[in-house]
Amino acid sequence: xxxxxxxxxxxxxxxxxxxxxxxxxxxxxxxxxxxxxxxxxxxxxxxxxxxxxxxxxxxxxxxxxxxxxxxxxxxxxxxxxxxxxxxxxxxxxxxxxxxxxxxxxxxxxxxxxxxxxxxxxxxxxxxxxxxxxxxxxxxxxxxxxxxxxxxxxxxxxxxxxxxxxxxxxxxxxxxxxxxxxxxxxxxxxxxxxxxxxxxxxxxxxxxxxxxxxxxxxxxxxxxxxxxxxxxxxxxxxxxxxxxxxxxxxxxxxxxxxxxxxxxxxxxxxxxxxxxxxxxxxxxxxxxxxxxxxxxxxxxxxxxxxxxxxxxxxxxxxxxxxxxxxxxxxxxxxxxxxxxxxxxxxxxxxxxxxxxxxxxxxxxxxxxxxxxxxxxxxxxxxxxxxxxxxxxxxxxxxxxxxxxxxxxxxxxx
Length: 412
Ligand SMILES: *Cc1c(COP(=O)(O)O)cnc(C)c1O
Fold this sequence. Notes:
By secondary structure, the protein is α/β, with parallel strands linked by helices. The protein has two domains: 149 residues, Aspartate Aminotransferase, domain 1; 235 residues, Aspartate Aminotransferase, domain 2, CATH 3.40.640.10. 39% of the residues lie in helices and 13% in strands. It has 13 helices and 13 strands. The strands form three sheets. It has a seven-stranded mixed beta sheet with strand order 2-8-7-6-5-3-4, sandwiched between helices. Helix 1 packs antiparallel against helix 13 and helix 4 runs parallel beside helix 10. The longest helix has 23 residues. The structure holds pyridoxal-5'-phosphate. The site of pyridoxal-5'-phosphate (PLP) has 13 residues, from helix 5 and helix 6. The site of pyridoxal-5'-phosphate has 13 residues, from helix 5 and helix 6.
């Protein structure tokens, strides 16, 4: 072991010892065989909470197995808005009555984009950036083709992400809505959401944020910022499990005015009337389409309870400490091997992951996975290090960076 390695080890041990949230890591499941050395992909799939295993069993035996169909009347019909309100209060900065859980992010993006565009008579432009997540871009392209709208592309600096200046340069009287990611999935750039939202609203357009890479790790104030629409995943920093349903936020000022395009009985004013014509619910339930995914939204409730206990501001502080430490270790151990740091260096402009680039990172990632060190790879040659604040330790970060160094060194 070299001296610098010993120093890093000391530092990670000291950082973990001083971390007020360190003990929460034990709330998450870890395989007993020690096969996972370092999990650095909580931004793609959060770890399960230990409580979730027990609560799912209790759900199967209780609400489902014993309550049977009665549970729909007693509880489940309201679950999409009850859990949505909890998410709104704990993480989003949203008052009750504006958030629902259901569908996938892609489907909710479709519904809200269509509703927003159709609700902006006389405006036919959708603004999005070229670095946005593929599903966001594809949906905008599909909807533009379907509705004869025009797409206005922002081509941001890859290193900085979309700035208020980028947005100001393209919005105007024809802008119907603007769709941006709060945290860029690749670079980790954290957009100035309040600043951009204000610009967009002042231009008479609707602002829609994709919160997939921020919800659960970065506080938002959707109501206070005046955001119109937002969507996000619950399987990333919200630990809802693979394919867990997404969430949608619709500002109450818009609820009655917007009409979503997938008319189903569960979004109707009175689903059990079994009526002849579709009349949408007057409240946020009008954005629901079919039977809500009750079983799949149970694990999310466990994570929301934990986030309520810890507080989202404390979570953000740890996230910043983790990404700062990651960057320091990358500089010390990987930059000398030719690795490039491609995330913003200022934590005020950075989400909860860090991306580093090297031409051999596809091979490196495959070798790391075999060894129980688990980041992910994003083309052309980015290795993404996701720091899920409540389940990642500083020691894990250090073990991960040293493992990357070891694999890279063995290849050269
Ligand atoms: C993860 C992610 C998605 C995923 O959408 P799904 O419908 O859940 O597959 C969408 N947008 C962004 C920005 C993401 O990070």
